[in-house]
Write the structure tokens for this entry.
Amino acid sequence: MIRPTVARIDLDALKSNYRLIVDALAEDAAVRTPGVIAVVKANAYGHGAAQVALALEDAGADLLACADIEEGAALRAAGVRADILVFGALSVSDLDGLFDCRLTPTISTPGAAHAVQAAAEKYKQRIRYHLKIDTGMNRLGFRFDNLRRTLPELLASPNLDLEAIYTHFATADEPESPLFNEQRLRFETAQSEISDLSRGAGGDRRENNRSAVSADSAVSSLSSPYVHAANSAALLRDSRVWYDRVRPGLLLYGIVPPPLASTLPLTPIMTLGSRIVAVKGVRADEGVGYGVRFTAEQPATIAIVPAGYADGLDLRLAGRGSVLIRGRRAPIVGSVCMDMLMADVTGLDVSPGDEVVIIGSQGADRIDVREMAAQIGTIPYEILCRIGSRIERVYETAT
Ligand SMILES: *Cc1c(COP(=O)(O)O)cnc(C)c1O
């Protein structure tokens, strides 16, 4: 049993996008080729975390990132074996999942540092973590200008091993904003400060731990932490912020963050389609839908499509967006309802059962997520993440 409205996810296109990014990094890296952290948070931007993560792993991804411990546990339950980094704050989370599911936490607040240290002690384990530095986003992370005060205690935590240092850009997708460059410089200063600080703290701690823990974990704490900062926009924009790894999300799904452009031949991996379930003739001067916001000037034909705001289609699409029917653009009219929308198909020869493309191509035309986002004043991320759980995801792969 399957509803007419379906999201098709092309896993081959996903793998190809991943490899295009990897190849571009190898080609353009100044010194060493950075690795990738494949971002699959929020159910892989609505595409389905389990299937997307396994396909990325198949394409060679060795480190995935998610938003919280619960998402990480779901990835493990799906059989993901690659390392998994958790981005979110952990101070009020149930931390058992970090150990049960072998997840790598981000420590971005003193509260998280205490909580993870206490949990690791309880489990009698050492745990590797990524340290987040706030260089200007003013969200999570230790402030870049206060590290000598805030970090020594964390760096001396006996059960915590610093694996990587990272930051996040607030304006990577705003080419005019000077903050991007400022954040880069602050982050580079922070890196050298942390390396000074950890030489002090790490030295002491390693001595203490030599006797208590296995040789293996003592060795892992000796290697110096690696560095990452770039989301999709930063990756496209400035190879100076590639460092040791980059963290693309949106690009993997085949979408370039607006307003940026890219020469990478990425493919959007999701198409959203449906079928006409009814066709209605409307006389001149009659209105359509809640609030009768659309009034036909001439006799009109309206197609009813079984997808609405409960499926994540925004109300603001009415009067602004279109769907593709018989290779033509049919404007969305009236109102987007909970379970349905109406499209003006006047002049087209349509019947119930005809294919409707909401996102994707039909004939020579295509409606992409960037266009849809621009029509309603949002970002592609929001459109993708909101595609509802009622819509079945069908995974396609040739291999
Ligand atoms: C979501 C996220 C990313 C990926 O962002 P895109 O713009 O989708 O590439 C990278 N880093 C962090 C910390 C994130 O939260």
